[in-house]
Specification:
This protein is mostly beta strands. It contains 1 helix and 19 strands. It starts with a helix and ends with a strand.
C-alpha cells in the first residue's frame, strides 16, 4: 500500500512538472515577437557633428531609435569600418551614449529582444562618420556587396558583380574592382562608373574573391571588405 501511494505521488508530481513545462513552452510560443526599430540618430550616410568632444581623438555620440512593439531590451551593434572592430551594448532604453573614435566611418544597427520569446528583430543598417577635427571632406563609405552575397555558391559560366556605394558628399566618381582566385585579388577593372560588372567568366569548383575601392571627386578612396563566393 505504501509503495502504491509513493508511486501515485511521483506520478502526480511528474504530471504537474510536465504541465508547468508545457505551459511555459506554450506561453513562449504564443508570445508576440518584438518588431524591428527604426533608426533615428545618427542619420544614415551623414557626418555626425552633434557628439560631445571628449578629446582630439574621441567623441561621445548619441544613438537613438524608435521603441519597438513587444521589445523589452535592445542590442546596439556598432562597427568601425576602417578597423572592422565591432562593439555591442545592451540597453532597455531606445537611446544610448557611446564613445567612439573621431574621423572614422561606422555602421550600426539595433536588435529588438524580449524575454518572452527567442525571436528577435533587426533594424536596417545605417552608416555615418564621426566628425573629425578640421575635416572638410570625408572619404566614401566602404562599399557593400549586393551580389553574389558572401559565402554563397553560384552556378553558371558567368556572374554579375553588384555592389552599393555611398558617401556623405554624394560625389562618388568611380570604382576599382579587384577580382580573382587569391585572398588578395588583383585589379580586374578600374574606373567603373556603374555599381555592377556583368558577365565575368567563371570556372567550375573554384573559390573567388572580390573587393571594391570607391573613389570620390576629392581624391578620397575607401576599400570594402574582401568578399568571396564559390562555383559549383
Amino acid at each position: 500500500m505504501r509503495k502504491l501511494l509513493i508511486c501515485m505521488l511521483a506520478t502526480l508530481l511528474f504530471a504537474a512538472c510536465s504541465s508547468k513545462k508545457d505551459d511555459t513552452q506554450n506561453v513562449a510560443a504564443l508570445a508576440p515577437p518584438p518588431e524591428k526599430s527604426n533608426l533615428l540618430l545618427p542619420i544614415a550616410n551623414s557626418v555626425c557633428t552633434t557628439g560631445t568632444v571628449i578629446s582630439t581623438t574621441q567623441s561621445s555620440i548619441a544613438f537613438s531609435w524608435t521603441a519597438a512593439t513587444n521589445a523589452e531590451s535592445y542590442d546596439i551593434v556598432i562597427k568601425n569600418l576602417i578597423t572592422n572592430t565591432t562593439a555591442q551594448q545592451t540597453t532597455v532604453s531606445p537611446q544610448v551614449q557611446i564613445t567612439l573614435d573621431r574621423n572614422a566611418p561606422y555602421s550600426w544597427y539595433v536588435v529588438s529582444k524580449s524575454s518572452k520569446t527567442t525571436t528577435t528583430a533587426q533594424s536596417d543598417v545605417f552608416k555615418f562618420y564621426s566628425a573629425g577635427l578640421g575635416i572638410v571632406y570625408y572619404a566614401p563609405f566602404p562599399a557593400d556587396a549586393v551580389s553574389p552575397e558572401y559565402g554563397v555558391t553560384v552556378s553558371g559560366q558567368t556572374t554579375n558583380l553588384i555592389w552599393k556605394g555611398t558617401s556623405t558628399d554624394n560625389n562618388i566618381v568611380g570604382y576599382d574592382v579587384y577580382f580573382g582566385t587569391i585572398a588578395s585579388p588583383p585589379l580586374f577593372k578600374s574606373n567603373v562608373t556603374d555599381v555592377f560588372l556583368n558577365n565575368i567568366p567563371l570556372s567550375t569548383g573554384t573559390l573567388y574573391y572580390w573587393r571594391i575601392v570607391t573613389k570620390d571627386a576629392n581624391g578620397n578612396t575607401s576599400s570594402s571588405d574582401t568578399f568571396q563566393f564559390k562555383t559549383k
